[in-house]
Amino acid sequence: MEFGSILFHRLPEDFSDSERERLIEELKEVLQKFGAEFDEYQFAGYSSERYTISKCVRCGDLTLDEATSPGELETGDIFDAIARILRPGTCRNGECWCNECRQSVST
Fold first, then answer.
1. Which of 97, 94, 99 minimizes the C-alpha distance to 73?
2. Who wins on pLDDT, 81 or 30?
3. pLDDT at site 58
4. Each residue of 57-76: pLDDT tens digit?
5. Which of 19, 35, 76, 88 is deepest in the core (most CB within 10 A)?
6. Is the pLDDT of residue 47 over 70?
7. Mean pLDDT over residues 82-100, rounded?
8. How far is residue 52's CA from residue 64's CA, in Å, rounded to a whole number?
9. Comparison of pLDDT for 89 and 78, the residue scoring more
10. How far from each other are the two terminal CA atoms of the chain, in whole angstroms?
């Protein structure tokens, strides 16, 4: 048995709760066609107007520019799950580097 996940990088800012529910129902139907099961989902909103979020130029992970964030990523179940896909880092001159990649290059 294999497990996988689906990540949506950018949903429209005005994506409503009813649209979200419709999206989940349609995903369930598509997965059933391929013999797969839908288990659970989590949505977390980080406004692109408030935060700079982009892919790390080295590893491709989504990176949150620490200069635009209100502090370190919060902790707790939902935030721990988010931290696996949204890494703290630095964005300058149109390039974002997660802290892990930036440190590995500088050593």
1. 99
2. 30
3. 94
4. 999 888 888 887 655 555 55
5. 88
6. no
7. 82
8. 6
9. 89
10. 39
Decide: 27 and 36 in contact? Cβ < 8 Å: no
Q: What is the enclosing helix (H) or strand (E) of 82?
A: helix 77-83
**CA distances to 41, 61, 82 from 7, in Å:** 10, 11, 11
Q: What is the pTM of this model?
A: 0.54
Residue 88 burial (CB count, 10 A): 15
Report how far residue 83's alpha carbon sits from residue 78's, in angstroms, rounded to the nearest whole number: 9
CA dist 70 and 22 (Å) reads 32
Residues 6+ apart with CB under 8 A from 1: none
